[in-house]
Design a protein that fits this description.
alpha/beta; 3 domains; seven-stranded mixed sheet; 29 helices; 33% helix; globular; binds zinc ion
């Protein structure tokens, strides 16, 4: 007798041998069968394969699969492609660890090309694990044609979307204050700071510092007294530009240690009688001696004054708030309102840097901001400006980088922003069309979207979709690139290329596949020779300087006929030869074609001892790249075969495999000659179109003003990639224009500010529509006691182990049994055991 698990494995084998899933979604289904029923559309929320799938991933996959199978059984056509999220900081951080890199400067030293290549490889590290679990749990999804966010054509769609956003005047560059990770060297979005675990307790400094009053227009007697402020981040004092008080709060003048000090209240341990009291409003307009000089504040009459602000509270500190517009959100906003200077001494790595602004304290040069506290306080003590200081005097919850766990700072800098605040009403209206399950998840989502926060999409990193924004260094005009074609309009090619297919040969008449080594002496037929002669008169008019040909007999003969007749030099290149048919060489061409499920599969599937179209594409592209290197201003005729010429022409325009096989005007008749469209697109060392950094940054062009257009250095927020997946996974608008909301998506509740939002945001930006009609939001899986599963608690359950012990179906069933999909699920192995015994072991 076999175990339950063995029975399951047999069923999976049966499904595989009979291609059950493939048949339910195959393109080769009889047309009537496929189109008769309604389509039920679905979009996979792309995971990242640089980590093993956890129980939460398993839960979402089980719920998706159950709904999708149910719809299939109702007679609907349910196409479903896998998707992979591949860009972003998580990937970069993993690679940095692997190669022992500490910061951005190290990456530049290491080589950006090597670094992004390592990122590309690293994202597939655990693909095998994902496939094993999907396979064993019978999660049916098309893994053979997934969408991949680093795919050049996916990125081309993202570019197109950004161009549209730009045309709607919603893409702007703004100087803004934002959460920033000094280790990662990039800003984070509000959504990222909203991740669970972002806030952790931290021991910060507690410093009471005095500012000496120079002028006091309303209360002249205060001249020479001190304003007492409290801060937990002494490093920000260098950027002090003002002080803020609450206009309605009552402040007192105290005598503390022989000095006159103004505060709402004194720090613990200090007691003194108030000499005089006055309202905060009367302090407004006071000027004080700056703690430190800076170029940014020089000549600014608004700097180093007291301002009134409603955000000043009386709970913490002294009721007087030190304002550093470069290092705080409230500070930045007040600075904007009052025209304060943004004084910054810190570089992108979080170090004090005299290259940014001359440092008043040479000893803090090159020191990390939080490590400079003691040095700064010591200096202020010398000046008699410190009332009290405790380096670890204040414990509070503080936001940290969700990837690298470094404490974040607020940092004011220019960023590229999508003005979501301007389309807030549309977002809310589109969300009303969505069926949220459970409803409470929809309410939570509404609370988030009604804030209408703008979306900072720029990241100062390496591995991501580069922002498609080029700017002239002189006149500052910008151009947003929305397609490869538009990009190519700014680059040059050195030569003009024509392509020619050979004349008819014996193998063509016999319908035989013939690549090298040729199965028989495959000469041109009489008809084939006549076809070539007929074309020669046409070629004569083109003024060809050079012929490059495949050395296979039929192309060699064709090229030689042309070369001799017109007296043109000729060269042969192995890389232009026919596709290697492998096991099918010498067999019927129809047998070769039947080997592939779709024409597109010729790019991915290789016959035994043969090659894929992808391999053929790379070798032909390399041949062309060499011609570009060797020659300039030539007219070159390439003589080759149907397959290689079609694939080469597609690759030179940056088309996808699918576009190439479907584009009928890429096919050639026997001996036909055509001009080939060649785009000079950035390509990696393999010859593939690659618009990642650093390749894309080589593209620059002259402006009419005489300046040069260069790309802005940033890459896109990775959430823009996945958020655009409704469009980009279909290569919108190049292959699919008429994108509609999908019927169904399903992910866990932590995507509220993540994917649920970015999908809706992008669909609203592009087509003013929702991205999905129905959304199932799942609760988290916890341990049996309702605790979050985490490595540190040692209560993590691996879905692989559970399936091994109990089988896949009991586990799947259990996840529905234990609670409603929207509720948290306490995973209790004992319950699962009982459930299996009662329902499955019959
Ligand atoms: Zn970080
Ligand atoms: Zn210009």
């Amino acid at each position: 007798m076999s175990t339950f698990q063995e029975k399951e494995e047999k069923i999976i084998e049966f499904w595989k041998t009979h291609k059950i899933f493939k048949r339910s979604v195959s393109e080769k289904l009889p047309k009537n069968k496929k189109t008769k029923g309604e389509t039920f559309s679905f979009l996979e929320g792309p995971p990242t394969a640089n980590n093993v799938p956890h129980i939460g991933h398993f839960l979402t996959r089980v719920c998706k699969d159950t709904i999708l199978r149910f719809q299939t059984m109702r007679g609907k056509y349910v196409p479903r492609s896998a998707g992979w999220d591949t860009h972003g900081l998580p990937v970069e951080v993993e690679v940095e660890k692997k190669i022992g890199i500490k910061n951005k400067r190290d990456i530049e030293k290491y080589g950006v090309d090597k670094f992004t290549k390592a990122c590309k490889e690293s994202v597939w590290q655990y693909k095998g694990e994902w496939e094993k679990i999907d396979d064993r749990s019978a999660f049916w999804i098309d893994q053979r044609h997934p969408y991949i966010t680093y795919d050049p054509n996916f990125m081309e769609s993202v570019w197109n979307i950004l161009k549209q956003v730009h045309e709607k005047k919603l893409l702007v560059e703004e100087f803004r204050s934002q959460p920033y990770c000094t280790r990662c060297g990039t800003a984070l979005s509000q959504a990222e700071v909203g991740q669970t675990d972002a806030y952790q307790n931290i021991q910060d400094a507690s410093l009471y510092v005095k500012f000496k009053i120079t002028q006091s227009p309303k209360l002249p007697e205060l001249k020479g007294a001190y304003l007492l402020a409290w801060t937990t981040t002494p490093w920000t004092l260098l950027g002090n530009a003002a002080l803020a008080v609450h206009p309605k709060l009552s402040y007192s003048l105290f005598d503390v240690e022989g000095k006159k000090v103004i505060a709402y209240k004194l720090p613990e341990g200090y007691s003194a009688q108030a000499i005089k009291k006055f309202l905060g409003g009367d302090l407004v307009g006071i000027t004080y001696e700056p703690l430190y000089p800076s170029k940014a504040a020089k000549g600014n009459d608004n700097a180093h004054k007291v301002y009134g602000a409603d955000f000043v509270g009386s709970d913490d500190g002294t009721g007087i708030v030190h304002i550093a517009p470069a290092y705080g959100e409230d500070d930045f906003q007040l600075g904007k309102k009052e025209g304060l200077p943004v004084i910054n001494f810190v570089n992108e790595g979080g170090l004090f840097d005299s290259a940014v602004e001359t440092l008043p304290l040479p000893e803090i040069e090159g020191i990390y901001i939080r490590k400079a506290h003691d040095l700064i306080v010591e200096d202020l003590k010398q000046a008699g400006l410190v009332l009290s200081y405790d380096p670890k005097g204040h414990t509070h919850a503080y936001p940290h980088c969700w990837r690298c766990k470094s404490p974040l700072i607020y940092f004011a800098m220019p960023s590229w922003v999508i003005k979501m605040s301007k389309i807030k009403d549309k977002i809310i209206a589109n969300n009303k069309k969505v069926n949220w399950v459970p409803k409470t998840a929809g309410h939570r989502f509404y609370e988030w979207i009604k804030e209408g926060k703008d979306w900072n999409i720029s990241r100062k990193r390496f591995w991501g979709t580069p922002l498609p924004i080029w700017r002239c260094g002189e006149c500052k005009k910008i151009e947003v690139i929305g397609s490869f074609k538009q990009l190519a309009s700014h680059t040059k090619i050195h030569n003009t290329y024509y392509i020619m297919r050979h004349g008819e040969a014996i193998a063509n008449v016999k319908h035989t596949a013939s690549s090298q080594p040729e199965p028989f002496f495959n000469l041109l037929t009489k008809k084939g020779i006549a076809q070539v002669h007929k074309t020669i008169s046409q070629i004569k008019k083109l003024g060809i300087n050079l012929i490059i040909a495949s050395p296979v007999l039929r192309t060699k003969d064709t090229a030689q006929l042309v070369a001799e007749k017109l007296g043109i030099p000729i060269a042969f290149d192995e890389r232009l030869q026919e596709v290697n048919f492998g096991q099918f060489n010498g067999k019927k061409i129809s047998e070769y074609q039947a080997y592939f499920e779709t024409e597109e599969d010729q790019y991915y599937v290789s016959p035994q001892k043969g090659e894929t179209f992808t391999q053929m594409s790379l070798r032909t592209v390399k041949a062309l790249q060499d011609l570009e290197k060797k020659h300039t201003g030539k007219k070159i005729l390439i003589v080759s075969h149907q397959g290689p010429l079609m694939v080469l022409a597609g690759a030179m325009q940056g088309l996808t495999p699918k576009q190439t096989v479907l584009k009928k005007d890429l096919a050639l008749h026997f001996a036909e000659v055509k001009k080939m469209i060649v785009y000079n697109l950035p390509r990696n060392e393999e010859g593939e179109v690659d618009i990642h950094k650093p390749f894309i940054d080589d593209v620059a062009w002259k402006c009419s003003c005489g300046g040069t257009y260069n790309r802005v250095p940033e890459v896109c927020d990775v959430w823009l990639d996945s958020g655009s997946a409704l469009f980009s996974s279909k290569h919108y608008p190049f292959e699919e224009k008429n994108t509609k909301p999908v019927d169904f998506i399903c992910e866990a509740i932590d995507q509220t500010r993540g994917w649920f939002y970015t999908l809706l945001a992008v669909a609203t930006l592009v087509k003013d529509m929702p991205a999905y009609k129905n959304i199932l939001v799942l609760g988290h899986v916890q341990d049996a006691h309702g605790k979050k599963m985490s490595k540190s608690l040692g209560n993590v359950v691996s879905p692989k182990d559970v399936m091994q012990e109990y089988g896949a179906d009991p586990f799947r069933f259990y996840l529905f049994y234990v609670s409603e999909p929207g509720e948290p699920k306490k995973f209790n192995p004992k319950e699962l055991e009982t459930l299996k015994r009662n329902y499955f072991d019959l």
